[in-house]
Amino acid sequence: MSQRAANAYRKVDLESAPKDQVLVRLLDRFVLDVSHAREAVTRRDIPAKAAAIDHAARILVELQASLDHEASPDLCGRLAGLYGFANDRLNAANLTLNPAPLDEAAKIIEVLAAAFREAQGR
Fold it and tell me: How far is 63 from 98, CA to CA, in rounded Å?
């Protein structure tokens, strides 16, 4: 399958998925990106580290932008704080080439993803 076809398939799959599944997929992808960043930091592969951290950070931006503070101010405030913490950890790892902050970011998002999965009954 060509890269173009694969991208088109992923786009249709994501657009047709229920919103709660999209959220969990984004959280899972964040964890995968952080894992790739950790591996790149360990190898001292700066371009790969930058690409993985950049993608993870863009996921956090999208997650923050999707929060509806009017509908649930307390929950959204807490989620915004978690996303902000994860972003701070990404920045720390990016600047220091230390994988420990990446582990912290991944852990908090893994716990959040597990909570959303449980809420979905999966």
Answer: 25
Q: Cβ neighbours of residue 34 under 8 Å, at least 6 residues apart?
A: 52, 56, 90, 102, 105, 106, 109
Residue 94, token pair as written in the block: 């990016």
For range 99-105, the mean pLDDT: 97
Q: Which CATH class is domain 3-120?
A: mainly alpha
The residue extents of the domains of the chain are 3-120
Q: What is the pTM of this model?
A: 0.83
Q: For residues 96 and 11, is the Cβ–Cβ distance under 8 A? A: no
What are the tokens at 25?
A: 């997929």
Measured CA to CA in angstroms, residue 48 lies from 37, 52, 73, 97 at distances of: 7, 6, 37, 12
Statement: residue 12 has pLDDT above 70:
no
For tokens 């913490």, the residue is: 85
Residue 70: DSSP 8-state: T
The CA distance from 61 to 71, in Å, is 19
Specify whether the CB–CB gap between 34 and 105 falls below 8 A.
Answer: yes
